[in-house]
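Friendly challenge for the regulars: who can give me the structure tokens for this chain first? No prize, just bragging rights.
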Amino acid sequence: MQFCTFIREKAQHLGLLQADTLIDLYASLPEPYFESMQQLIESGDLGLAAAESLLQHPEHCVRHPIDSYQWTAPLLPSTVLCAGSNYRAHNAEKANAPLSGKEPEFFLKTADCVIGPEDGIVYDEKLTKKLDCETELAIVIGRAGRHIPVEDALSYVFGYTVANDVTARDRQVRRTETGTVFYELGRGKAFDSSLPLGPVITARAAIPDPQCLALSTRINGELRQSASTSDMIWTCAELIHNFSVNFTLKPGMVILTGTPAGTAWSVDAELGGQWQATEGLIAATRYCLPGDLVESAIEHIGVLRNPIISGKDHAHA
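First reply, four minutes later:
Bragging rights claimed.
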């Protein structure tokens, strides 16, 4: 099953996708009522069973054409836990900090970073002149847990969505006078529109193995990233375990799992990039600028599309 959030009559509605239609869950279910994705996630198996029952009884469904309404980000997570440098190929393409690849890098984003499908990623030249994009598999936590064992970790997942970890590279990558590279992951990662999410959340049952998904990024139609989640250094289950040492994971939290090779950073020699494009991929010649279109795709989830827009148009928004 795939769930989305859409706008109808100026209100957010929870949608269930079936073929080329959008089922309005709130309007279709007499009970229980789900007014938001967060409520659905918190309901656990009860909510999934109710949604499944609608698919078995189409006469109860209130349907809309799939493209009849604007979609938003599927949810605004309470906390976004992010793992950096988690793909072998990405680790090999760039200058690395001393602990890169030795333990999961850990940084945070917030709901203030989140935008939805077709929303504009703001290019703010006062913040960065090196705006980069990273397609990532995002884990949506479904039930609470702390110190979660690796072998049981996937049972805590509600589903998966597509994320774009938008990054200000000239804020992120720093060097000391001795040449040591370090990352400033606060200003480099967390800012307005730095986390497109969507277009849907695919329920866990539809992705029994999150370590065998094809992932890609296209910018203006050019294929920049193409990989499999099998190239992760730490699996989804291991990341859930690691983050649960710090936090009680709660329903609606999101975990970003890292990105593969092929970012614009990878060919930026000034910041330590050393990647050579492989067959089928097109190396970036610059960072993202207004007018670009970013398409982040993950198998069994969908394609998240976002244009790059000028910050001048949003300076007083």
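The chain has a mean pLDDT of 91. Helices lie at 25-28, 37-43, 45-56, 88-92, 169-172, 185-189, 236-246. Your move, everyone else.
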